[in-house]
Every structure is written in C-alpha cells, then in structure tokens.
Amino acid sequence: MVVALIGACIALAAGIAMGSAGAKAKRARLDYARTKALIPGARRTAWVEGLRGLRVIATATAVLIALALAMNVIGQR
Question: What is the distance between the alpha carbons of residues 60 and 52, in angstroms, rounded to a whole number?
C-alpha cells in the first residue's frame, strides 16, 4: 500500500513537472511565431529610418560644402 502511494506521488510530481514544461514550450512557440511575423515590418522600418538618416547627413554635408565654397570665394575677393 505504501509503495503504491509513493509511486502515485512520484507520478503526480512528474506529471506536474511535464505539464509545466509543456505549457512553457507552447508559450515559447507562440512567442517565436509572433516575433517571426514582426521581423519583415521591423526590417522595413529599419531601412526607412536608415535612409532618412542618410538623407539628413547628405543634406548637412552638401550645405557645409556649399558654405565652405562660398567662404572660399568671398575670401579670394
């Protein structure tokens, strides 16, 4: 009787542990699927923001070069 009770307790503990692990695995699969679905949008946003920053840098560089050339012309007079 005692051996059967001990076996039942061990089986109950193992069942709880396995159920908990299964639930964690299911949540992890759902999180992975959701994150994988977000990647194309995040990649597109990263490209857009990167190109926007590059445009700002190019504009600032062009303005600085134009100012340097204008100062050079003014300085030669």
Answer: 12
C-alpha 65/C-alpha 75 separation (Å) is 15
d(CA 65, CA 71): 10
pLDDT along the chain (77 residues), means of 10: 89 94 95 92 94 97 93 78
Q: What is the DSSP string of 1-69?
A: -HHHHHHHHHHHHHHHHHHHHHHHHHHHHHHHHHHHHHHHHHHHHHHHHHHHHHHHHHHHHHHHHHHHH
pTM of the model: 0.52
